[in-house]
Design goal:
It is a single chain. The protein contains four helices and ten strands, in the order E-E-E-E-E-E-E-H-E-E-E-H-H-H. Helix content is 14%, strand content 43%. The two termini are 24 Å apart. It is globular. It has a ten-stranded antiparallel beta sheet with strand order 5-6-1-2-3-4-10-9-8-7. By secondary structure, it is mostly beta strands. The protein has one domain (2-160). The chain has helices spanning 84-90, 131-134, 145-152, 156-160, and strands at 2-6, 10-18, 21-27, 38-48, 56-58, 66-72, 74-78, 92-99, 103-112, 115-120. The structure holds manganese (II) ion. Residues 5, 7, 11, 13, 26, 64 line the site of manganese (II) ion.
């Protein structure tokens, strides 16, 4: 699953369920379905499984303060015979997504420190469409970030800076 998160900066939290937790990366520019585009993905702390459907407002002043949207959700399959832990340790996780927005083959490759790269693999789901702009709404509630902030008592103006203009 992917949460769009307008905290101190906008980013997309990319989370894969493994070992009873959500193993997580923060992707500043969000995923790109274009195989030519490599997106920086910073490894961040695991989150509990029940966080996967959290959409709302984290109070300002708390860690990650801001508005959170469930931007995509679905299932994934690992490619190959390795376990998730082995792939994580080796720094190369190859998988297929079956989400509502993200589909097909993807790969996460470790580069250094907490830095990984998230890349689309070439298949029929590859596209040059900017999916983060084309599909900016919550998969759970169809709301934009500003709508979530408005409904949940958050900072609407700050949240709106994460929405595409003119919508
Ligand atoms: Mn986040």
């Amino acid at each position: 699953m992917v949460q769009k998160h307008r905290a101190s900066a906008l980013h997309y939290d990319f989370r894969l369920e493994a070992g009873g937790v959500l193993v997580s990366w923060a992707v500043p520019k969000g995923p790109s379905p274009d195989p030519k585009v490599k997106r920086l993905a910073m490894a961040v702390e695991d989150h509990p499984l029940d966080y996967a459907r959290f959409e709302g407002v984290i109070p300002e002043g708390e860690y990650g303060g801001g508005t959170v949207m469930v931007w995509d959700i679905g299932t994934y399959e690992l490619e190959g015979d390795e376990s998730f832990d082995e792939a994580l340790r080796k720094g190369r996780i190859v998988f297929t997504l079956n989400g509502k927005k993200l589909r097909g083959g993807w790969v996460l490759v470790h580069t250094s420190g907490r830095q990984w790269l998230l890349m689309k693999r070439t298949d029929r789901h590859a596209s040059t469409v900017d999916v983060t702009r084309a599909k900016p709404r919550s998969v759970l509630t169809r709301r934009l970030l500003a709508g979530i902030a408005r409904d949940e008592g958050g900072d609407v103006a700050k949240a709106a800076t994460g929405d595409p203009s003119g919508r």
